[in-house]
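re: ur msg from earlier - yeah i can do the zinc ion complex, just paste it... oh wait u already did. ok heres what im feeding in:
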Amino acid sequence: MNIFYYDVAVSLPLRQCFTYSSELKIKKGTRVSIPFGNRLLVGVINKNIQKPQLLGKIGAIKEIISIMDAYPLFEKSIFNSILWASDYYHHPIGEVFNTFIPTQLRKINNNKIEPIEKISEYSINEEDKKFNLTKDQNKAVKELSKAKGFLPSLLYGVTGSGKTEVYLRLAEDCIRKNKAVLILVPEINLTPQLLSRFEDRFDGEIGLYHSRQTPSKRLKIWLKAKFGNIKIIIGTRSAVLMPLKDIGLIIIDEEHDQSFRQSEGFKFSARDLGIKRSQLQDIPIVLGSATPSLQSLKLVGEKKFKKVDILSRVDGRKPPKLIALDINNSPLIGGLAMETISVMQNVINKGEQVLVFINRRGFAPLYQCGSCGWVAECKSCDTNLVFHQSRNRLICHRCESAYAVNKCCPVCNEDEFHFHGAGTERVEEVLESSFPKTSIIRVDHDSTKKVGAMEAIVKKIHSSEAAILVGTQMLAKGHDFPKVTLSVILNADNGLISPEINALEKISQLLIQVSGRAGRNNNLAKVIIQTRYPDDINLNKIKTGNYMNFAKQCLDNNMKMNLPPYSTLCLLRSSSPTQKSNLDFLEKAVLTLSNRRGINIIGPLPSLISKSKGNYRHHIYIQSSKKTFLNKVLKFLTVEFDKWPESKKVKWAFDIDPIDIN
Ligand code: ADP
Ligand code: ZN
Ligand code: ZN
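and the outut:
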């Protein structure tokens, strides 16, 4: 009798696979149930092995108990994308698998991987094509649909240039060829509007896939995609490895967006993983943006990406003018300068809409005793509590703990408190009193939490005449609000002077994106940037509205300084209940690497949020000009850490291509 041996990935935070045996031949990527310690777990067949090391040691190799499905989870190239991700991000293989397996398939239960419905027909609703493509759109569609096999294309389309219509035409092409399409967007809130555009264009089910759906809904969509019932999926980053049958194209909209990066647990970029997937599947990928990432622009420069431009808006209108408003001598009311309010009044009088962007939710970010200066802080994080008026609570934006609002000061017992700074709620309140007759629509994490809330808000925005929209990032991204003719940006300064990684890239993208929400219907549209640094060199360059110029300059700068994307960066992060444990561990890591050539190390340093959920947080930077070299160093470190007592006292993680030092 033949016995086969398999490397099995187990859904536990372990970096290795385990050897199991079976009398059956099992395909890679198949779910099996295995004994693990005294538990029964789901494992995934990673590979077949000829001669296991443990062979001959009694009891060392256990038997696979059962094969759970008749089909593997993933076909070969998605499977290999997972292996690639585990290797590239140095993350435990089982957890990487879990990220892309629907929750309901991660445990032993009755769910099976099998077709659930007969294949239904897909067709294109020709009646939906109300308008003719603009010249630029037409050219872009032609260029992009030429792509065969692996070819990443950057679709650089200014805001309002009609990128969505280009995506629709490319998707039509795929459907005609009976191929499937995957479209990724950075935020759940962007899915409803895209979904409705696709539903209008196609007859046949369009699948949504994101983390706010129930596990059973997610499983259903996943199975339908896998077996060909659904040919178009719109999803957020967790959908990047959706096993679509006969996939012909991947589209990543707003490719520059930081939300494609997962920063908790398995830290990966869905954009980068999407590119890897398209390479392994040998299919084209389109990355769309009005503010492309430096990374993409570098690859265009190296001819590794093709670039396709849409430089004019669909209506031929000019992008709005950006104006820096010096607020050094202006008293602010809830973050707004008087001059700003009066410009807003003019716009409202004309029956148009204003968008106010402030990158902070809640009422006030600082709640302070008027007598002794005590400030409300989170007990488990190094953060100030934000006062939320709507909930009448002080909330930590790091750990979401909610505290009762103090009646008297815990230090001096006085009962007079002050609010400092402004968040969306406070801006909303100020606007309600300044514009009592105008509808004020707040869009933030708190106002969009409920299912369907965002759809209702978007509807309200479209059906209102004069209105003021107040919101965070959520409002800045991708939306099409034709009645907005003025955008106001309240706290851009944080971004201009931030010590964060690639801060200038981020702030320029944000300013251009927010300004892109305005003036889709109007040549006189404006963007007011309230600032205390009106002479800032970078602000003045961004203000010209020419993102590409600014991005090129950032690239030149980063090249000179050997910063990403011209080098690779890894943060080795450590967190523990004591600072000493972090420092002991990180200092030992620095020492261990001290005589390695080809890498630069900075640190240990405290993270920007130096304490979170009760743990202190520190990191070191490890930088190298070569990715492969860095990879080797990190592999070496992983093995070393295993032997150290210092590593047992901390939780450590590699953060590859990090986007922040939070
Ligand atoms: P982008 O994503 O490039 O900022 P959108 O895709 O949101 O732009 O398109 C902006 C608006 O232009 C949408 O309302 C869309 O319906 C409209 N639109 C797209 N293409 C055309 C066209 N060829 N002619 C007229 N309007 C168009
Ligand atoms: Zn006090
Ligand atoms: Zn907290």
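cool cool. The two ends are 56 Å apart (CA to CA). ping me if u need the other ligands too
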